[in-house]
Amino acid sequence: MVALDLEFEKFLGKGSFGSVSLFKYKRRRDGNTLYAAVKTSDDRHAESLYKEFQVLSEFKGCSRIVQCYGNGVQESFNHKGYVEYKIPMEYAAGGSLRSFMYRFKDEILPEPMIKDFTRMLLEGLATIHGRRYVHCDLKPENILVFPSRVYKNGAWRSSYELKISDFGLAKKEGESKWWHPRRPFAGTPIYMSPESISHGETGRGLDLWSLGCVVLEMYTGKQPWWHTNYDLKDLIKCYEPLIPSDLPYDAKLFLMTCFAFEPDERKDALTLLRHSFLPRDVSNKLPNDFSLELEKLRQMLYEIKTMC
Q: Residue ranges of the Protein kinase domain (predicted)?
């Protein structure tokens, strides 16, 4: 991928650590035009980009994790003579989950889609946690939507696949050196869990709390804590985002599990994939069940090893 000639197409957006632009290139095999999203950072944020590439390199071929191309971070000079750092990544034509939600009335997704998207995110988290990483910044902006077409019941229908992106803040499970009372956030404050804010605990429970926030947002069209002024003290006192009373019962149960005050009570991604909130006839027929079972086995072996 690094040897291909990338041609700038358009600017896609800007984040905390750099910008993302769309580039096109010709596939050598048949000359077809393909697209790549290129993430660019300057000197100040180069370390984050290198870290993200290193983490993503460990998830090559994982269907629920955005894929990066090439063998390393590319360095080049921009038109002002400054060094830029770039990584080409697969392009999500559907944009982020945040922008995808804008297409729906009141930004509320249909319930079958919410359940399907939740399953995909849990698959991604199972893979991430199976390699002892914690994403630390799961939110709609960091979830990418890949549109596709499927043939079902005699007709072609739109379908969507989700992938988790933006691993610049990802940490190894148990890492807490980042935490400071005056800077208690590993990721975006309103998606953080109580234990991560109060004493810097970085475990899978943090991502599962964030997942609950994302699911709640897909149901309500509103960010968590919309009902009150977000206050650190409220979160540390074990309050959780408001769960509307008119949500389906199984959705409430799922969200209550994600928002359990004790991280262990939130279970794990593999367990939540079998929650009553997700239809059995869907979750039992996952094409990557085998890989998920391998991740479960890795987790079990790791826990046995730490007990010895």
A: 6-278
pTM of the complete model: 0.86
Q: Look at the chain and count its residues.
A: 308
Rounded CA separation 178/196 (Å): 11
Q: Does residue 240 sit in helix, strand or coil?
A: coil
Token couple for 135: 């994403």
* Phi (first) and psi of residue 13, to 5 degrees: 170, 170
How many distinct helices (H) and strands (E) make up the chain?
Answer: 10, 9
Alpha helices in 103-179 (DSSP H): 111-130
Superfamily of domain 7-90, CATH level 4 = Phosphorylase Kinase; domain 1 (3.30.200.20)
CATH of 97-302, one of 2.40.50.100, 2.60.120.510, 2.60.120.260, 1.10.510.10: 1.10.510.10
**Residue positions annotated with a catalytic role:** 137
> Given phi > 0 = left and psi -120 to 50 = alpha, else beta, which region is 79?
alpha
Q: Is 39 annotated as a binding residue?
A: yes
What confidence tens digit (pLDDT) does each residue in 51-96 have? 999 999 999 999 999 999 988 999 988 888 889 999 999 999 999 9
